[in-house]
Design brief:
The chain is mostly helical. It has 2 domains: 155 residues, Tetracycline Repressor, domain 2 (Orthogonal Bundle); 134 residues, Up-down Bundle (Four Helix Bundle (Hemerythrin (Met), subunit A)). The protein has 14 helices and no strands.
Amino acid sequence: MTTTAAQPIPLPTDWRDFWSLTKPRVMSLVIFTGLCGMLAAPVPVDPVLGFVAILCIAVGAGGSAALNQWWEADLDAKMKRTATRPLPAGRMERGSARDFGILLSVGSVLTMGLAVGLLAAAILAFSIFYYAVIYTIWLKPRTPQNIVIGGGAGAFPPMIGWIAATGDITLMPVLLFAIIFFWTPPHFWALALFVETDYAAAGIPMMPVVAGHQSTRRQILIYAVLMLPVAMAPFWLGVAGWLYGAAALLLTAVFLLLSLRVAVFRGEAGDMDMRPEKRLFGYSVLYLFVLFAALVVDRFVVG
């Protein structure tokens, strides 16, 4: 008589697992920057259409995040940081995540097009495609520059918010896109430095895995230096006032200081006490929130 190993019984899926697929923490930043892009526009915004536009941006971001987790389920299972997500933890079938992501993505684009405008819908559709396909499928497993090129995916929300308000693209939304684009590498590489062992285990060629810690730290500093003229550009070019300019100068100076500390740090790979990297990562999130908030306050206070 032979016995067979008992098959694991999948855990039940509930609404919290679907919510987790949307990456709520990332979505909060997407919503905030999209809202700031809308409020910074020099036109009155209809509250209902504004709410619909921000909702579409949020739902589209959630859809692309779900598609990202559907595609990377096997990789997520190899990393401690992501092993408890619904798919690697066995709480959800991959097909359900895929269908959920497609539903959110298509629904957000169609709603944006019908309620707000075709240009905003087109940029939203491209941003979803950029993250779910260009970054997730093509760039991330192939090049250590994945987060540099792929950073464009997270830079679209303020541009979409601006377009939803005005109906066109001008200098300001391009500058807002550039700020997030240059902010993304030092923000994400700071995280990658202290979770390098996770990426190495999953075979993902993140910069610390491929180029080493010291090279990554130098590149963080380089991007932090580049962030100063980019962050100050709205003020220098006259599309934002002195309040934003002062905030951008102060905030970016602190970012530079923290990046310099990362550049000279000599912690070992996997060192859980990599405080400079952790401080930079934590501050980088605060940096973007406060910088974009300053832009909105400048718009309404300084004019």
